[in-house]
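Kindly review both lines to help learners:
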Amino acid sequence: MTTATCPRCGHRPGPADPDTHPGVCPACGIAYAKWLARQAASEPEADRAETLDTASGHEGSLGERLREQLLLPPDGSDPDRTGLRELLLAALAIWTLWFASGGIDWEAIGGSFLHSVDLAFHEFGHLFFMPFGRTMTILGGSLFQFLLPVSLALYFAAWQQDNFAAAVASWWAGQNLVDLSPYIRDAEYRGLPLVGGNGEQSHDWGNLLTQWEAVDSCYALARASFWLGILMMAAALAWGAMLLWRVRSPR
């Protein structure tokens, strides 16, 4: 059986695709006939499953569907676009190693190009959360700069079905946690230069941890933010690499 469009991922085979069997999708690697047969066979099973207890294996099928959705590769019909994605992923991998090797160093992290981008969203976060009270206004800057890329990752994955863009946004979310780590560590001394120039009174994490009586925990919280960010960046890179590998090696 042959088809012009893959029934699973919607990919239309083109001259730039790797050679595959006529009945195999060069993008996601399924055999059309087998996949359609499994879909047809699963329909009556799904109908019967609605009458069963949800604890009897239904969660496993949901997890499998989620995994399949998150590993759906991007369109590989344009080799130039695939090559650009690979270059971007390589650049992000180098950047991740640079952040990880430098540790919680304000000069390195604060001097990064991305810090200026993160800072703009940080300042907007204070305004965004202002209606929710003083504590949320102070916390809102750090919260917004992290939640924005997380929201973008969810949007790309769930609505746009662009998993590679979601992986890049996830990397950015991790980078924001790294960006926050020197600010958290400085809560004890309040010595970093801040927007407005008033570090003593305008220091978000100095004020928050003082309010929560947890200033002594600033080092531990900074390390947690830094290494969680590095792990998120590494996981996002692994996700993106898996997607591109499936484009290059659909079998």
